[in-house]
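User: For a reading group we're discussing how well predicted structures match intuition. Take Phosphoacetylglucosamine mutase. Before you show the prediction, I'll give you the sequence so everyone sees exactly what went in.
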Amino acid sequence: MAHFEEVCKQSDLHPKPAGLVLQYGTAGFRTSANKLDHIMFRMGLLATLRSKKTKATIGVMVTASHNPEEDNGVKLIDPMGEMLTSSWEDYATQLANTEQNELLKTLKDIIEKEAIDMSQEANVYVGKDTRRSSASLSQAVLDGVKALGGHCKDYGLVTTPQLHYMVCCQNTQGKYGEATVEGYYHKLSQAFSQLAKNASNRTDDQKHLSVDGANGIGAIKVREMESHLRKHMQLSVFNDGSRGKLNHQCGADFVKVQQKLPTGIKINPGDRCCSFDGDADRIVYYYTDSQGDFHLLDGDKIATLISTFLKELLNEAGLDLKIAVVQTAYANGSSTHYLENTMKVIVKCTKTGVKHLHHAAQEFDIGVYFEANGHGTVLFSDGAEEKIQQLASDTNTNDERKKAAFLLQNTINIINQTVGDAISDMLLIEAILAIKGMSVQHWDAIYSDLPNRQLKVKVSDRRVIDTTDAERRAVTPAGLQEAIDDLVKKYEKARSFVRPSGTEDVVRVYAEADTQESADALAHEVSLAVYGLAGGVGDEPKPLH
Ligand code: NG1
Ligand code: ZN
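Assistant: Thanks. Here is the predicted 3D structure of Phosphoacetylglucosamine mutase, as C-alpha coordinates, for the group to look at:
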Protein backbone atom coordinates (compact mmCIF):
# COMPACT_ATOMS: atom_id res chain seq x y z
CA MET A 1 0.00 0.00 0.00
CA ALA A 2 3.06 2.18 0.36
CA HIS A 3 2.72 3.15 -3.29
CA PHE A 4 -0.66 4.77 -2.77
CA GLU A 5 0.73 6.94 0.01
CA GLU A 6 3.52 7.98 -2.32
CA VAL A 7 0.98 8.72 -5.06
CA CYS A 8 -0.92 11.04 -2.68
CA LYS A 9 2.25 12.78 -1.57
CA GLN A 10 3.56 13.27 -5.10
CA SER A 11 0.18 14.23 -6.46
CA ASP A 12 0.14 17.21 -4.10
CA LEU A 13 3.22 18.44 -5.93
CA HIS A 14 1.34 18.18 -9.24
CA PRO A 15 -2.08 19.51 -8.26
CA LYS A 16 -5.01 19.71 -10.66
CA PRO A 17 -6.54 23.17 -11.12
CA ALA A 18 -10.07 22.67 -9.74
CA GLY A 19 -12.76 22.45 -12.40
CA LEU A 20 -10.39 22.01 -15.36
CA VAL A 21 -11.76 19.41 -17.79
CA LEU A 22 -9.69 17.96 -20.64
CA GLN A 23 -10.24 15.05 -22.99
CA TYR A 24 -7.89 12.40 -24.37
CA GLY A 25 -8.57 12.97 -28.06
CA THR A 26 -7.14 11.69 -31.37
CA ALA A 27 -3.78 13.19 -30.42
CA GLY A 28 -3.87 12.49 -26.68
CA PHE A 29 -4.12 15.55 -24.44
CA ARG A 30 -3.16 18.82 -26.07
CA THR A 31 -3.55 22.37 -24.73
CA SER A 32 -1.59 25.30 -23.25
CA ALA A 33 1.48 23.92 -21.53
CA ASN A 34 0.63 25.66 -18.26
CA LYS A 35 -2.48 23.49 -17.80
CA LEU A 36 -0.71 20.18 -18.15
CA ASP A 37 1.48 19.45 -15.12
CA HIS A 38 -1.12 17.31 -13.30
CA ILE A 39 -2.05 15.58 -16.57
CA MET A 40 1.57 14.52 -17.08
CA PHE A 41 1.88 13.16 -13.55
CA ARG A 42 -1.35 11.25 -13.94
CA MET A 43 -0.34 9.87 -17.35
CA GLY A 44 2.79 8.56 -15.64
CA LEU A 45 0.46 6.73 -13.26
CA LEU A 46 -1.72 5.44 -16.08
CA ALA A 47 1.24 4.27 -18.18
CA THR A 48 2.48 2.32 -15.16
CA LEU A 49 -0.91 0.61 -14.79
CA ARG A 50 -1.02 -0.09 -18.52
CA SER A 51 2.43 -1.63 -18.33
CA LYS A 52 1.40 -3.86 -15.41
CA LYS A 53 -1.75 -4.86 -17.28
CA THR A 54 -0.04 -5.69 -20.58
CA LYS A 55 3.14 -7.01 -18.91
CA ALA A 56 5.03 -4.94 -21.46
CA THR A 57 6.85 -1.64 -21.84
CA ILE A 58 4.62 1.38 -22.48
CA GLY A 59 5.69 4.74 -24.00
CA VAL A 60 4.77 8.28 -22.99
CA MET A 61 5.60 11.07 -25.44
CA VAL A 62 5.48 14.71 -24.38
CA THR A 63 4.75 16.83 -27.46
CA ALA A 64 2.13 19.03 -29.07
CA SER A 65 3.35 18.20 -32.58
CA HIS A 66 2.53 21.06 -35.01
CA ASN A 67 0.79 23.25 -32.40
CA PRO A 68 2.38 26.55 -31.35
CA GLU A 69 5.39 26.50 -29.01
CA GLU A 70 3.22 27.60 -26.05
CA ASP A 71 1.12 24.40 -26.21
CA ASN A 72 2.12 20.96 -25.14
CA GLY A 73 0.57 17.53 -24.98
CA VAL A 74 1.00 13.88 -24.14
CA LYS A 75 0.29 10.55 -25.81
CA LEU A 76 0.61 6.99 -24.54
CA ILE A 77 2.14 4.31 -26.73
CA ASP A 78 0.94 0.69 -26.52
CA PRO A 79 3.25 -2.38 -26.59
CA MET A 80 3.63 -2.84 -30.35
CA GLY A 81 4.35 0.88 -30.79
CA GLU A 82 0.75 1.63 -31.69
CA MET A 83 -1.60 4.28 -30.25
CA LEU A 84 -3.20 3.59 -26.87
CA THR A 85 -6.24 1.31 -27.18
CA SER A 86 -9.59 3.20 -27.08
CA SER A 87 -10.93 1.68 -23.86
CA TRP A 88 -7.94 3.11 -22.01
CA GLU A 89 -8.46 6.53 -23.59
CA ASP A 90 -11.53 6.73 -21.36
CA TYR A 91 -9.44 5.94 -18.29
CA ALA A 92 -7.00 8.65 -19.35
CA THR A 93 -9.85 11.15 -19.50
CA GLN A 94 -11.28 10.02 -16.15
CA LEU A 95 -7.92 10.22 -14.44
CA ALA A 96 -7.22 13.64 -15.94
CA ASN A 97 -10.48 15.14 -14.75
CA THR A 98 -10.70 13.65 -11.26
CA GLU A 99 -10.39 16.34 -8.61
CA GLN A 100 -7.36 16.15 -6.35
CA ASN A 101 -9.08 14.44 -3.38
CA GLU A 102 -10.68 11.75 -5.59
CA LEU A 103 -7.54 10.72 -7.46
CA LEU A 104 -6.82 7.64 -5.39
CA LYS A 105 -10.37 6.42 -5.72
CA THR A 106 -10.31 6.76 -9.52
CA LEU A 107 -6.96 5.01 -9.68
CA LYS A 108 -8.24 2.12 -7.55
CA ASP A 109 -11.37 1.87 -9.70
CA ILE A 110 -9.25 1.38 -12.80
CA ILE A 111 -7.07 -1.20 -11.02
CA GLU A 112 -10.18 -3.10 -9.97
CA LYS A 113 -11.96 -2.91 -13.32
CA GLU A 114 -8.91 -4.14 -15.18
CA ALA A 115 -7.99 -6.63 -12.45
CA ILE A 116 -4.43 -5.34 -12.45
CA ASP A 117 -1.88 -7.30 -10.46
CA MET A 118 -0.08 -4.52 -8.62
CA SER A 119 2.87 -6.77 -7.83
CA GLN A 120 3.63 -7.02 -11.57
CA GLU A 121 6.71 -5.06 -12.69
CA ALA A 122 6.13 -1.94 -14.81
CA ASN A 123 8.37 -0.33 -17.43
CA VAL A 124 7.73 3.02 -19.07
CA TYR A 125 9.76 4.77 -21.80
CA VAL A 126 9.50 8.57 -21.83
CA GLY A 127 10.42 11.01 -24.61
CA LYS A 128 9.97 14.71 -25.24
CA ASP A 129 10.12 17.32 -28.00
CA THR A 130 12.10 20.59 -27.94
CA ARG A 131 9.41 22.82 -26.40
CA ARG A 132 10.59 24.87 -23.43
CA SER A 133 7.86 23.34 -21.27
CA SER A 134 8.74 19.74 -22.22
CA ALA A 135 11.56 19.35 -19.68
CA SER A 136 9.45 19.94 -16.57
CA LEU A 137 6.40 18.20 -18.04
CA SER A 138 8.32 15.03 -18.84
CA GLN A 139 9.73 15.17 -15.30
CA ALA A 140 6.13 15.13 -14.06
CA VAL A 141 5.53 11.94 -16.11
CA LEU A 142 8.62 10.35 -14.53
CA ASP A 143 7.36 11.38 -11.08
CA GLY A 144 4.07 9.62 -11.80
CA VAL A 145 5.76 6.39 -12.89
CA LYS A 146 8.07 6.38 -9.87
CA ALA A 147 5.23 7.15 -7.45
CA LEU A 148 3.56 3.87 -8.44
CA GLY A 149 6.84 1.98 -8.24
CA GLY A 150 7.35 1.65 -12.01
CA HIS A 151 10.75 1.67 -13.73
CA CYS A 152 11.33 4.34 -16.30
CA LYS A 153 13.80 5.06 -19.04
CA ASP A 154 14.04 8.67 -20.07
CA TYR A 155 15.01 8.94 -23.76
CA GLY A 156 15.11 12.73 -23.49
CA LEU A 157 14.80 14.53 -26.81
CA VAL A 158 13.45 12.16 -29.47
CA THR A 159 10.96 12.39 -32.32
CA THR A 160 7.52 10.88 -31.65
CA PRO A 161 8.13 8.00 -34.12
CA GLN A 162 11.52 7.26 -32.55
CA LEU A 163 9.83 6.64 -29.20
CA HIS A 164 7.21 4.41 -30.88
CA TYR A 165 10.09 2.49 -32.46
CA MET A 166 11.87 2.05 -29.08
CA VAL A 167 8.73 0.63 -27.46
CA CYS A 168 8.23 -1.85 -30.30
CA CYS A 169 11.90 -2.91 -30.27
CA GLN A 170 11.78 -3.52 -26.54
CA ASN A 171 8.59 -5.55 -26.62
CA THR A 172 9.72 -7.69 -29.55
CA GLN A 173 12.97 -8.50 -27.72
CA GLY A 174 15.00 -6.70 -30.35
CA LYS A 175 13.38 -8.38 -33.37
CA TYR A 176 12.19 -5.02 -34.67
CA GLY A 177 15.60 -3.46 -34.01
CA GLU A 178 17.74 -2.20 -31.18
CA ALA A 179 15.92 0.09 -28.74
CA THR A 180 18.39 2.97 -28.98
CA VAL A 181 18.53 6.09 -31.14
CA GLU A 182 21.73 4.70 -32.65
CA GLY A 183 19.90 1.43 -33.38
CA TYR A 184 17.20 3.38 -35.19
CA TYR A 185 19.76 5.23 -37.35
CA HIS A 186 21.56 2.00 -38.06
CA LYS A 187 18.45 0.07 -39.15
CA LEU A 188 17.12 2.81 -41.41
CA SER A 189 20.41 3.85 -42.95
CA GLN A 190 21.40 0.24 -43.69
CA ALA A 191 18.13 -0.31 -45.53
CA PHE A 192 18.56 3.00 -47.34
CA SER A 193 22.04 2.16 -48.61
CA GLN A 194 20.83 -1.26 -49.79
CA LEU A 195 18.04 0.41 -51.73
CA ALA A 196 20.26 3.22 -53.03
CA LYS A 197 22.63 0.63 -54.54
CA ASN A 198 19.92 0.00 -57.10
CA ALA A 199 19.90 3.56 -58.31
CA SER A 200 21.91 4.30 -61.42
CA ASN A 201 24.69 6.86 -61.02
CA ARG A 202 23.21 9.94 -59.47
CA THR A 203 24.73 13.40 -59.57
CA ASP A 204 25.28 15.39 -56.39
CA ASP A 205 22.34 17.55 -57.45
CA GLN A 206 20.08 14.51 -57.57
CA LYS A 207 21.26 13.45 -54.12
CA HIS A 208 20.50 16.85 -52.66
CA LEU A 209 17.44 17.51 -50.50
CA SER A 210 16.49 20.65 -48.55
CA VAL A 211 14.80 19.90 -45.22
CA ASP A 212 12.72 22.36 -43.20
CA GLY A 213 12.95 21.04 -39.64
CA ALA A 214 10.11 23.26 -38.30
CA ASN A 215 12.64 24.50 -35.67
CA GLY A 216 11.94 21.28 -33.82
CA ILE A 217 13.27 17.88 -32.85
CA GLY A 218 13.25 16.56 -36.45
CA ALA A 219 16.00 19.01 -37.40
CA ILE A 220 18.23 17.78 -34.58
CA LYS A 221 17.61 14.13 -35.38
CA VAL A 222 18.03 14.36 -39.14
CA ARG A 223 21.38 16.12 -38.51
CA GLU A 224 22.41 13.30 -36.18
CA MET A 225 21.51 10.80 -38.87
CA GLU A 226 23.32 12.64 -41.66
CA SER A 227 26.69 11.01 -41.04
CA HIS A 228 25.12 7.58 -41.64
CA LEU A 229 23.83 8.68 -45.03
CA ARG A 230 26.67 10.76 -46.37
CA LYS A 231 27.49 8.68 -49.45
CA HIS A 232 23.92 8.59 -50.70
CA MET A 233 22.33 11.84 -49.66
CA GLN A 234 23.21 15.49 -49.29
CA LEU A 235 21.03 17.38 -46.88
CA SER A 236 20.63 21.10 -46.30
CA VAL A 237 18.73 21.58 -43.06
CA PHE A 238 16.82 24.83 -42.58
CA ASN A 239 14.78 25.96 -39.58
CA ASP A 240 16.97 23.89 -37.31
CA GLY A 241 15.88 25.64 -34.13
CA SER A 242 19.00 27.73 -33.75
CA ARG A 243 17.06 30.94 -34.38
CA GLY A 244 13.38 30.62 -35.33
CA LYS A 245 10.41 29.63 -33.25
CA LEU A 246 8.94 26.11 -33.32
CA ASN A 247 6.33 25.63 -36.10
CA HIS A 248 6.16 29.39 -36.63
CA GLN A 249 5.72 30.13 -40.35
CA CYS A 250 7.37 26.81 -41.09
CA GLY A 251 6.91 23.06 -40.80
CA ALA A 252 4.68 20.57 -42.60
CA ASP A 253 1.37 21.89 -41.26
CA PHE A 254 2.13 25.48 -42.26
CA VAL A 255 3.26 24.45 -45.76
CA LYS A 256 0.26 22.16 -46.32
CA VAL A 257 -2.43 24.51 -45.04
CA GLN A 258 -0.95 27.77 -46.43
CA GLN A 259 0.18 26.06 -49.64
CA LYS A 260 3.37 28.10 -49.69
CA LEU A 261 7.08 27.93 -48.88
CA PRO A 262 8.09 28.09 -45.24
CA THR A 263 10.09 31.11 -44.18
CA GLY A 264 13.75 30.55 -43.43
CA ILE A 265 14.44 28.26 -46.40
CA LYS A 266 16.75 29.29 -49.25
CA ILE A 267 16.16 27.32 -52.42
CA ASN A 268 16.40 27.59 -56.21
CA PRO A 269 13.60 26.81 -58.65
CA GLY A 270 13.27 23.06 -59.15
CA ASP A 271 15.05 22.11 -55.89
CA ARG A 272 13.49 19.15 -54.06
CA CYS A 273 12.42 20.19 -50.54
CA CYS A 274 10.53 18.71 -47.63
CA SER A 275 9.10 19.95 -44.33
CA PHE A 276 8.71 18.00 -41.07
CA ASP A 277 6.27 18.96 -38.35
CA GLY A 278 7.25 19.79 -34.75
CA ASP A 279 7.63 16.16 -33.60
CA ALA A 280 8.67 14.74 -36.98
CA ASP A 281 5.78 12.38 -37.59
CA ARG A 282 4.60 14.23 -40.69
CA ILE A 283 6.32 15.15 -43.94
CA VAL A 284 5.34 17.00 -47.12
CA TYR A 285 7.48 17.64 -50.22
CA TYR A 286 7.46 20.67 -52.54
CA TYR A 287 9.38 22.72 -55.10
CA THR A 288 8.99 25.99 -56.96
CA ASP A 289 9.04 26.15 -60.76
CA SER A 290 10.84 28.63 -63.01
CA GLN A 291 7.83 30.97 -62.81
CA GLY A 292 8.11 30.97 -59.04
CA ASP A 293 4.90 28.93 -58.64
CA PHE A 294 4.75 26.66 -55.61
CA HIS A 295 4.03 22.92 -56.05
CA LEU A 296 3.07 20.79 -53.06
CA LEU A 297 3.45 17.01 -52.90
CA ASP A 298 1.38 16.08 -49.87
CA GLY A 299 0.46 12.81 -48.15
CA ASP A 300 -1.73 11.79 -51.10
CA LYS A 301 1.12 12.17 -53.59
CA ILE A 302 3.41 10.31 -51.18
CA ALA A 303 0.89 7.43 -50.86
CA THR A 304 0.63 7.27 -54.66
CA LEU A 305 4.41 7.16 -55.15
CA ILE A 306 4.90 4.48 -52.50
CA SER A 307 1.98 2.29 -53.56
CA THR A 308 3.00 2.45 -57.24
CA PHE A 309 6.52 1.40 -56.29
CA LEU A 310 5.26 -1.48 -54.13
CA LYS A 311 2.77 -2.66 -56.74
CA GLU A 312 5.49 -2.77 -59.40
CA LEU A 313 7.78 -4.73 -57.09
CA LEU A 314 5.05 -7.22 -56.23
CA ASN A 315 4.46 -7.78 -59.97
CA GLU A 316 8.16 -8.27 -60.61
CA ALA A 317 8.44 -10.62 -57.65
CA GLY A 318 5.38 -12.55 -58.83
CA LEU A 319 3.84 -12.23 -55.37
CA ASP A 320 0.08 -12.22 -55.09
CA LEU A 321 -0.40 -9.86 -52.14
CA LYS A 322 -3.35 -7.55 -51.66
CA ILE A 323 -2.31 -3.90 -51.47
CA ALA A 324 -4.62 -1.08 -50.41
CA VAL A 325 -4.34 2.66 -49.83
CA VAL A 326 -6.16 4.14 -46.84
CA GLN A 327 -7.11 7.82 -46.91
CA THR A 328 -9.41 10.25 -45.12
CA ALA A 329 -11.99 12.70 -46.46
CA TYR A 330 -9.16 15.26 -46.79
CA ALA A 331 -7.54 13.23 -49.57
CA ASN A 332 -7.57 15.18 -52.80
CA GLY A 333 -10.28 13.88 -55.15
CA SER A 334 -7.72 13.54 -57.95
CA SER A 335 -5.61 11.18 -55.86
CA THR A 336 -8.53 8.90 -55.08
CA HIS A 337 -9.53 8.91 -58.75
CA TYR A 338 -6.00 8.08 -59.89
CA LEU A 339 -5.53 5.30 -57.33
CA GLU A 340 -8.86 3.66 -58.10
CA ASN A 341 -9.04 4.09 -61.85
CA THR A 342 -5.47 4.17 -63.12
CA MET A 343 -3.55 2.20 -60.54
CA LYS A 344 -6.51 -0.01 -59.76
CA VAL A 345 -5.69 -0.46 -56.09
CA ILE A 346 -8.25 -0.77 -53.32
CA VAL A 347 -8.90 2.61 -51.68
CA LYS A 348 -10.50 2.91 -48.26
CA CYS A 349 -11.67 6.09 -46.57
CA THR A 350 -11.70 6.34 -42.77
CA LYS A 351 -12.38 8.99 -40.18
CA THR A 352 -9.62 11.53 -39.48
CA GLY A 353 -7.07 10.39 -36.90
CA VAL A 354 -4.12 8.13 -37.38
CA LYS A 355 -5.48 5.23 -35.36
CA HIS A 356 -8.45 4.86 -37.72
CA LEU A 357 -6.17 4.71 -40.75
CA HIS A 358 -3.77 2.36 -38.98
CA HIS A 359 -6.54 -0.10 -38.10
CA ALA A 360 -7.96 -0.05 -41.62
CA ALA A 361 -4.50 -0.63 -43.12
CA GLN A 362 -4.01 -3.70 -40.91
CA GLU A 363 -6.77 -5.49 -42.82
CA PHE A 364 -4.62 -5.93 -45.95
CA ASP A 365 -1.42 -7.78 -46.85
CA ILE A 366 0.10 -4.38 -47.49
CA GLY A 367 -1.72 -1.27 -46.28
CA VAL A 368 -0.36 2.12 -47.32
CA TYR A 369 -1.97 4.83 -45.23
CA PHE A 370 -1.48 8.57 -45.40
CA GLU A 371 -3.38 11.60 -44.25
CA ALA A 372 -3.22 14.43 -46.79
CA ASN A 373 -1.24 16.39 -44.19
CA GLY A 374 1.67 13.96 -44.58
CA HIS A 375 1.21 11.61 -41.65
CA GLY A 376 1.45 8.04 -42.78
CA THR A 377 3.33 4.80 -43.19
CA VAL A 378 3.02 1.32 -44.68
CA LEU A 379 1.97 -1.82 -42.81
CA PHE A 380 2.98 -5.32 -43.90
CA SER A 381 1.06 -8.26 -42.45
CA ASP A 382 3.14 -11.04 -40.87
CA GLY A 383 2.11 -13.30 -43.75
CA ALA A 384 3.25 -10.77 -46.35
CA GLU A 385 6.60 -10.29 -44.63
CA GLU A 386 7.12 -14.03 -44.49
CA LYS A 387 6.38 -14.52 -48.21
CA ILE A 388 8.80 -11.73 -49.09
CA GLN A 389 11.57 -13.13 -46.86
CA GLN A 390 11.04 -16.63 -48.26
CA LEU A 391 11.33 -15.44 -51.83
CA ALA A 392 14.42 -13.38 -51.06
CA SER A 393 16.17 -16.43 -49.63
CA ASP A 394 14.88 -18.96 -52.19
CA THR A 395 17.78 -20.29 -54.21
CA ASN A 396 15.56 -21.34 -57.12
CA THR A 397 14.19 -17.90 -57.83
CA ASN A 398 15.33 -16.14 -60.99
CA ASP A 399 17.31 -12.94 -60.75
CA GLU A 400 14.53 -10.51 -61.53
CA ARG A 401 12.16 -11.94 -58.94
CA LYS A 402 14.93 -12.12 -56.41
CA LYS A 403 15.93 -8.52 -56.95
CA ALA A 404 12.32 -7.41 -56.44
CA ALA A 405 12.09 -9.46 -53.24
CA PHE A 406 15.34 -7.94 -52.00
CA LEU A 407 14.00 -4.43 -52.67
CA LEU A 408 10.78 -5.29 -50.84
CA GLN A 409 12.79 -6.64 -47.92
CA ASN A 410 14.73 -3.41 -47.57
CA THR A 411 11.58 -1.37 -48.04
CA ILE A 412 10.14 -3.18 -45.01
CA ASN A 413 13.27 -2.32 -43.03
CA ILE A 414 13.31 1.35 -43.94
CA ILE A 415 9.69 1.83 -42.92
CA ASN A 416 8.67 2.61 -39.35
CA GLN A 417 5.54 0.47 -39.22
CA THR A 418 4.57 1.66 -35.75
CA VAL A 419 3.45 5.14 -36.83
CA GLY A 420 4.01 7.84 -39.48
CA ASP A 421 7.65 8.93 -39.39
CA ALA A 422 9.01 11.94 -41.28
CA ILE A 423 12.62 10.66 -41.33
CA SER A 424 11.72 7.13 -42.39
CA ASP A 425 9.20 8.36 -44.99
CA MET A 426 11.80 10.81 -46.32
CA LEU A 427 14.34 8.02 -46.77
CA LEU A 428 11.83 5.77 -48.52
CA ILE A 429 10.74 8.56 -50.88
CA GLU A 430 14.37 9.47 -51.64
CA ALA A 431 15.14 5.81 -52.33
CA ILE A 432 12.14 5.39 -54.64
CA LEU A 433 12.96 8.55 -56.61
CA ALA A 434 16.58 7.39 -56.91
CA ILE A 435 15.69 3.85 -58.03
CA LYS A 436 13.13 5.09 -60.53
CA GLY A 437 15.41 7.91 -61.69
CA MET A 438 12.47 10.21 -61.10
CA SER A 439 12.62 13.96 -60.47
CA VAL A 440 10.24 15.71 -58.08
CA GLN A 441 8.60 17.28 -61.16
CA HIS A 442 7.94 13.85 -62.71
CA TRP A 443 6.50 12.65 -59.45
CA ASP A 444 4.29 15.72 -59.26
CA ALA A 445 3.03 15.12 -62.81
CA ILE A 446 1.56 11.67 -61.98
CA TYR A 447 -1.77 13.44 -61.44
CA SER A 448 -2.85 17.05 -60.87
CA ASP A 449 -4.40 17.99 -57.55
CA LEU A 450 -7.81 19.61 -57.59
CA PRO A 451 -7.48 23.12 -56.14
CA ASN A 452 -8.63 23.04 -52.52
CA ARG A 453 -9.00 25.15 -49.41
CA GLN A 454 -9.18 24.41 -45.68
CA LEU A 455 -10.74 26.94 -43.31
CA LYS A 456 -11.65 27.05 -39.62
CA VAL A 457 -14.86 28.41 -38.09
CA LYS A 458 -15.25 29.23 -34.41
CA VAL A 459 -18.57 28.10 -32.89
CA SER A 460 -19.77 28.10 -29.30
CA ASP A 461 -19.88 24.29 -29.10
CA ARG A 462 -18.34 22.31 -31.94
CA ARG A 463 -20.02 19.11 -30.72
CA VAL A 464 -23.29 20.30 -32.30
CA ILE A 465 -21.82 18.96 -35.54
CA ASP A 466 -22.19 15.21 -35.88
CA THR A 467 -20.98 13.44 -39.01
CA THR A 468 -21.36 10.14 -40.85
CA ASP A 469 -19.85 8.35 -43.89
CA ALA A 470 -16.21 8.76 -42.72
CA GLU A 471 -17.00 12.38 -41.83
CA ARG A 472 -18.03 13.27 -45.37
CA ARG A 473 -21.61 14.18 -44.41
CA ALA A 474 -23.03 16.19 -41.51
CA VAL A 475 -26.00 14.66 -39.70
CA THR A 476 -26.53 17.61 -37.36
CA PRO A 477 -27.31 20.49 -37.02
CA ALA A 478 -30.47 20.26 -39.11
CA GLY A 479 -30.19 21.84 -42.55
CA LEU A 480 -26.39 22.07 -42.65
CA GLN A 481 -25.78 19.14 -45.02
CA GLU A 482 -28.57 20.34 -47.34
CA ALA A 483 -26.98 23.79 -47.39
CA ILE A 484 -23.57 22.28 -48.24
CA ASP A 485 -25.12 20.12 -50.99
CA ASP A 486 -26.74 23.19 -52.57
CA LEU A 487 -23.51 25.17 -52.47
CA VAL A 488 -21.46 22.31 -53.96
CA LYS A 489 -23.87 22.12 -56.92
CA LYS A 490 -22.87 25.64 -57.98
CA TYR A 491 -19.31 24.60 -58.83
CA GLU A 492 -17.57 22.17 -61.18
CA LYS A 493 -15.82 19.05 -59.82
CA ALA A 494 -16.69 20.33 -56.38
CA ARG A 495 -16.78 18.59 -53.00
CA SER A 496 -17.01 19.98 -49.49
CA PHE A 497 -17.44 18.70 -45.94
CA VAL A 498 -17.21 20.00 -42.39
CA ARG A 499 -16.23 18.32 -39.12
CA PRO A 500 -15.38 19.34 -35.57
CA SER A 501 -11.61 19.30 -35.00
CA GLY A 502 -10.32 16.80 -32.46
CA THR A 503 -7.30 18.91 -31.56
CA GLU A 504 -8.52 22.54 -31.70
CA ASP A 505 -11.69 24.28 -30.59
CA VAL A 506 -12.88 24.90 -34.17
CA VAL A 507 -14.97 23.42 -36.95
CA ARG A 508 -12.87 22.56 -40.01
CA VAL A 509 -14.20 23.30 -43.48
CA TYR A 510 -12.76 21.61 -46.59
CA ALA A 511 -13.63 22.42 -50.18
CA GLU A 512 -12.23 21.46 -53.56
CA ALA A 513 -13.27 22.48 -57.07
CA ASP A 514 -11.97 22.91 -60.62
CA THR A 515 -10.27 26.28 -59.92
CA GLN A 516 -8.66 27.86 -56.86
CA GLU A 517 -11.17 30.74 -57.02
CA SER A 518 -14.06 28.27 -56.91
CA ALA A 519 -12.51 26.22 -54.09
CA ASP A 520 -11.93 29.42 -52.09
CA ALA A 521 -15.44 30.73 -52.75
CA LEU A 522 -17.04 27.38 -51.88
CA ALA A 523 -15.00 27.07 -48.66
CA HIS A 524 -16.09 30.58 -47.69
CA GLU A 525 -19.77 29.96 -48.43
CA VAL A 526 -19.71 26.69 -46.47
CA SER A 527 -18.00 28.53 -43.58
CA LEU A 528 -20.89 31.00 -43.59
CA ALA A 529 -23.37 28.11 -43.47
CA VAL A 530 -21.52 26.62 -40.48
CA TYR A 531 -21.38 30.01 -38.80
CA GLY A 532 -25.11 30.54 -39.31
CA LEU A 533 -26.39 27.03 -38.54
CA ALA A 534 -23.90 25.73 -35.95
CA GLY A 535 -23.68 28.67 -33.56
CA GLY A 536 -20.79 30.74 -34.94
CA VAL A 537 -19.06 33.10 -32.52
CA GLY A 538 -17.02 36.24 -33.19
CA ASP A 539 -16.92 37.93 -36.58
CA GLU A 540 -18.67 36.35 -39.54
CA PRO A 541 -16.16 34.53 -41.85
CA LYS A 542 -14.77 36.94 -44.48
CA PRO A 543 -14.25 36.03 -48.14
CA LEU A 544 -10.67 35.10 -49.03
CA HIS A 545 -10.43 37.53 -51.94
P1 NG1 B 1 -8.12 17.56 -36.26
O1 NG1 B 1 -7.76 18.76 -35.44
O2 NG1 B 1 -9.07 16.59 -35.60
O3 NG1 B 1 -8.52 17.96 -37.64
C1 NG1 B 1 -5.54 17.13 -36.91
C2 NG1 B 1 -5.36 16.64 -38.32
C3 NG1 B 1 -5.48 15.13 -38.31
C4 NG1 B 1 -4.51 14.48 -37.33
C5 NG1 B 1 -4.63 15.15 -35.97
C6 NG1 B 1 -3.62 14.67 -34.98
C7 NG1 B 1 -6.11 17.69 -40.42
C8 NG1 B 1 -7.23 18.26 -41.18
N1 NG1 B 1 -6.39 17.20 -39.21
O4 NG1 B 1 -6.79 16.69 -36.43
O5 NG1 B 1 -5.30 14.66 -39.60
O6 NG1 B 1 -3.20 14.53 -37.82
O7 NG1 B 1 -4.53 16.58 -36.08
O8 NG1 B 1 -2.41 15.31 -35.03
O9 NG1 B 1 -4.97 17.71 -40.89
ZN1 ZN C 1 3.21 15.53 -35.39
